[in-house]
Amino acid sequence: SSTVLPGFTPWPSADAQRYRDLNCWTGETFGDVLTARAAAAPDAIAVVDDANRWSYAELDHRSRALATGLSRLGIRRHDRVLVQLPNRAEFVEVIFALFRLGALPVFCLPAHRQAELVPIATASAAVAIITCGTHQRFDYAALADSIRQQVDTLRHLLIVTDDSATALPDDARDIAEFRDEPADLPEPNAVDVAFLQLSGGSTGIPKLIPRTHDDYLYSVRRSAEVCELGSDTVYLATLPVAHNFPMSSPGILGALWAGGTIAMTPDPTPATAFRAIERFGVTITGLVPPLARLWVERAEAGNTPDLSTLRVVQVGGARCQEELARRVGPALGVTLQQVFGMAEGLVCYTRLDDPIDVVVGTQGRPMSEHDRLAVVDDDGNEVPPGTDGNLITHGPYTIRGYYDNVEANARSFTADGWYRTGDIVNLRPDGNLVVGGRAGDWVNRGGEKVSAEELEAHLLDHPDIRDAVIIGTPDPVLGQRICAFVQPADPAHRPSLMTVRTFIRERGVAAWKMPDAVVIVDQFPETGVGKTSRRDLRQLLADGAHQN
Ligand code: J2J
């Protein structure tokens, strides 16, 4: 059937036609791609992790089997399904099963807790959660069970277990029960929404990003080309694989597109990841800057496992300091590639044959000649080349609206459909971008985005806190750290950093959002219009306000 998912903003039909004519959108679905690769090279290895080694034929079979089982359970086209899994082979099986059904995975991160998952489940009206049992000493099944009890639409709780003896919550089912004999199922259309990705740092109603088979596959194909992937590629998913970067830039989907191999590691630290590189013969991976620093420092110290298969290390998600960028290639014996991307669409890369100054000093240029970029001032007028301004963009793989969110759409898109990235950039005459910072009130803590407003709202619920302002302050390793300015309700009761962190953790907030510092202020400096002045707060900090 051709009905469109309610709440999805399609591209205007003239643009959609143009992207088809240009052969950006090819009409293929994710299921089609896997079918084709499995037919062409059934025995090639598609996915490896510490416990599994699946050929393309096996992955194809598994995804069809699970799709059949999930359809027996009543999961249908357009249904939303929360997926919260660590980096392991079953992640790929699960998402391809859902893709084949036309059901939409909603890509949650392992670090998400109930303060994130309840709003995500509610905003997506999800019908099921697929998660694991205990992983890294945290009981994901119990978390999912508690989410299910708080969100009416959630009917099913499915667990990827390591063995059938695992104790599951009542009514939870092991996905092993749903690996049926594959049956023919109605297939989705390439214009359909394939999944919902999450926007970093959203407040209130989560911003869910609808990506279609057509648009996302184009970005995956172009990424695979730009990153020069082939059937000999082994891509290591180091960052949490549900994130857009390891998913598609070129990520695990790029590796599959190229007929290469996906390798999964649940732990990105050098101790584990370097062994995975040696064991799986990894050729490319993607890191955020703080991880890149850890890897470089570890490699510079010498005596590492064999990293000689590694050819490309990508760094993205947050600004990479030039000093660090210069060390990546020599330390790891690789070509560095900077990646500036966003789950909403646009991804920029430095190219593998760019001069070193471009590679270490810029965040590259758009992957597609059909991407349109403009750098504008606060009134929307283009600034002269080489001047800082706000980046806006549209193109064949950048969304035209968030899922079912009229207010966010009014804020984040121009009247003619350009996405306001919120990034301050400088477009150099050679076409490469230098990313300066963010216009909005967010902290980018080493690639993990935190909405100031979201965290402030949590703090304001603390009885000892009258007012709170979250600011990102410079940090040599993370780029930015989270500083909470707190005005106590009673000057005699000053909440400590410990108090604040414990309070936030107990509310079920993802651990990466914990403030790194608390600064007690008697009163907030104000702008002319009575709004708290973040600039003055930054100054206060620069002047050495006491942090505890
Ligand atoms: C500075 N800021 C950057 C960079 C992202 C590939 C790579 C990253 C993401 C991602 C992604 C940056 N330098 N190199 O989805 O496919 C900041 C910008 C941007 C925001 C998007 C991909 N790379 N950023 O990080 O949706 O502020 O995607 O707008 O999580 O991260 O965050 P996110």
From TrEMBL:
Mind telling me which Gene3D superfamilies this protein's record contains? 3.30.300.30, 3.40.50.980, Luciferase, Domain 3 (2.30.38.10)
- AMP-binding enzyme C-terminal domain ranges (all copies): 454-531
Pfam (any one): AMP-binding
Which GO molecular function annotation, any one, does this entry have? Answer: ligase activity, forming carbon-sulfur bonds
Keyword field: Ligase
User: In what residue span(s) does the AMP-dependent synthetase/ligase domain sit?
Assistant: 36-403
The protein in question is named: AMP-binding protein
- Give the organism, scientific name: Nocardia uniformis
